[in-house]
Amino acid sequence: MDFDFNDNIDFEEEKRRRDSRAVRSAQREKARRKKLFARRATIVGIMLLIVVLIVTLIIVGVNALIKSIGGGGVEETTAPTVAPTEAPTTLNFKEPEIPDDKKSKGYFSSANGAVYIYEKAAYEIFSGDEASAKSYAECISSFKALLGDDVTVYNMVVPTHIEFGVPKRLKENGEVTTSNQIENLKAIYSSYTEDVVAINCYNKLSEHVKEYLYFNTDYYWTGLGAYYGYQAFCEQADKKILDLSICKDNSAEGFEGQLLYCDTSLYENLDTVHYWTFPYNTYAMRTDSNGAIPYETTIYYEAAVGGPYTYGAFLWGDCPLFVEYNKDLTNGEKILVVKDSYGNPFAPYLTANYEQVHIIDYRYYDGNLIKYCTENSIDEVLFINNIMSANSSGQQDSLKSLS
Questions:
Q1: Burial code of 111-129, b = ≥16 C-beta within 10 A, e = fewer?
Q2: 102 shares its domain with 45
Q3: Within this chain, do residues 44 and 126 fall inside the same structural domain, yes or no?
Q4: Ranges of H-type helices in 111-191
Q5: Tell me, what's the pLDDT at 50?
Q6: How confident is the model at residue 91 (pLDDT cuts 50, 70, 90)?
Q7: Residues 195/197/203/204 CA torsion (nearest 10 deg)
Q8: What is the pLDDT of residue 83?
Q9: Phi, psi angles (nearest 5°) of residue 395
């Protein structure tokens, strides 16, 4: 019997198998080539990165060498400055390093139990609390709401002398009791209900704690202390800072402040009032009382001499309305400063930045603040108070009366 091989071979199945093997072989080859390409691409990428790093190191080295011999080097590209968030500016506080011999003590004045005497200087005790702080923040927020989105509202609360003159040791061991000003400022700056720009001058004062920032015989900060407050404002409001070294330092010795009566030791430590006149032309219009006709005068009372009224060198003392003008500045910018007496030595520095500086003392002015801004085309308002005023319900009521 003849055997025919073709009877046992399925040619279609054999063809399918051959085709399947060919397909798998083609797929393996494709995968191999893809891996090879990826490997080569990775190698090329690494080589390019190495080249870039080498070139960068060469440029940095050349720049360093050129700068070391006084050249300018290759111009560096600087990334845009990112504006800081509000928290680091307003809610982070640097406590001052107050000089302390670790043994000296003070005592409370027998004439005024709210005044502490330390090293022949008088310090008013602070008694504000969180409730009064939030009430003040609400007051400032209400003005922002009334002024609207087109007006920028700043608020600066100035700490008082006891923060920068009495060592922390005496506060911690109970020798002197005073409320925590940092916590109070945090309560104010974190409680706005409107878009108010908080100006933290505490840290700037801390940086200069060994300088003459506050008077020994009065509540107020000095012209120098106010200048550091002005620096803080400029830094946080993006303004150019006036260089005090190009200004003329004027002084009146023998200032007898309002706390002089508190202790006889203060007579051995009378104050000197310093104020700086500027390298540009200024004048002012002063309104002595509500409804009175404004008259032209100078920014400072330059005839000030020692005695109880020497602080009047700044703005000639308190009045309802005082407007400063920089005759050499034509930028058209205006600001309204709403202040207590701490604003007196502060406001003159603003003439370096604004063509007009309008100053309202809310304790004496009986007009409407919103109407005043509208009539005078003012789109920046700065509220400045010391922390005692900010926490005073009476002062808050006076401020609210402007609305």
A1: ebeebbbbeebbbbbbebe
A2: no
A3: no
A4: 130-147, 162-165, 168-172, 181-189
A5: 72
A6: confident
A7: 180
A8: 37
A9: -70, -40
Residues contacting 294, CB < 8 A, separation 6+: 285, 286, 287, 321, 323
pLDDT in tens, 32-67: 665 556 566 566 566 766 765 675 566 555 455 444
Q: What are phi and psi of 77, to 5 degrees?
A: -95, 120
Does residue 152 register a pLDDT over 90? yes
Is residue 255 domain-resident?
Answer: yes
At 348 the three-state DSSP class reads helix
Which tokens in the block code for residue 83? 């504006």
CA distance 124 to 109: 10
CA dihedral over 63, 64, 65, 69, signed as positive or negative: positive
Question: Residue 251: which domain range?
Answer: 87-400
The verdict on 170 and 37 lying in the same domain is: no
Q: Are residues 368 and 329 in the same domain?
A: yes
pLDDT digits (tens, 9 = 90+) for 272-293: 999 999 999 999 999 999 999 9
Instruction: Specify whether 203 is located in the same domain as 283.
Output: yes
Q: Is residue 251 part of a domain?
A: yes
Q: Tell me which residue has tokens 């400072």.
A: 300
In this prediction the pTM is: 0.78
> Is 74 inside any structural domain?
no
Tell me how many domains the chain contains. Answer: 2
CA proximity to 237, closest of 97, 107, 403, 353: 353
Q: In the chain, pLDDT over 70 holds for what percent of residues?
A: 78
